[in-house]
Write a structure and sequence with these properties.
Length: about 350
Amino acid sequence: GLKYANNDVCYPATIVIGSIMNALTSGKYDPDDVAVIMTQTGGRCRASNYFSLIKNALVSAGLQNVPVISLATGAGLNNNQPGFKLQWRKLLGVVLNVMLYADCLAKLYHATIVRETEQGITLQLRQKYTKLACELIENNQSKQLQKLMAEAAEEFTKHTDINKKTPVIGIVGEIYVKYNGFSNKFVSNWLEENGVEVVAPALYNFFMTRFPNYHIRKKHFMQNISTPLWLTDTIYKYLYKQAQKYDGFCKAHPFYRPFSNIFHDAELAEKVVNLAGDFGEGWELPGEISHLATQGVENVVSLQPFGCIANHIISKGIEKKIKQVYPHLNLLFLDFDSSTSEANVFNRLHFMVENAKKSIN
């Protein structure tokens, strides 16, 4: 990443570009038969420049013929590529179900692995239900995916020791670093190896923030909202109902944590920050921490990529205020960049783990 970009970009950009270039220069792919696709959400984040940074890296490596496709949800980020067109009407249903399925599978995995009745069985189940899901996704079979989710929940439950008490630590932070194990030195795996249940926010939440933002931006005169709010609210109610349907599939698992209502998370966040701050994770980050605190998760780690203005500053900036609202909250902020010391990360985590263990004694 540093070879093909520079150290002026944020850490997630360095890792993303480095991962792509590592693959394309490995010799495993034919440059004339490969393309790069990058998801982008727009806004004021430097991720909006990833498309240009990736293309520049390809040109520098002599791979200028490799097309770079922007899969964008924000206006002005789409680029026309001959031969590539998404049939959104056909795909939206399965995309929603895939996101909910993946979130639920992650919740079941994290809740089970520290309580598994047979060593290694939880990972086997995750791999099994990922592979089975891929076949259904390729064939756009949403209803079958829902049925598979219910089967997964039952099997995870069978292999869970319901009497085992474990410390719980929540994970929040910038969207890429908190979900990408390589970039955060596999913090979740380390915590689970030390007997800690990891609670990570659903990816679904990140996309749902758009709906409260319609109200927020109209209220604060930040944007001309032409779409009627009753319509966007109706769409959200439908999406939330789908999330609750997946909650129903997984309710058999005694340690499953349901999806939160994003409007309620926004109300919690408003006690900490002005909701007009929707830059990056913005108010979603204090909203997630607050939601965890109200659910009894009082030990929270925030994974922050160095150079990410939107999240690095917001996360640390809210510490004093959020502790005033939730005095028993124990927060740990971990910074990550290409030179982050493992010893520094895990030494600090050891203190967090010991503190979390006290809560179950």
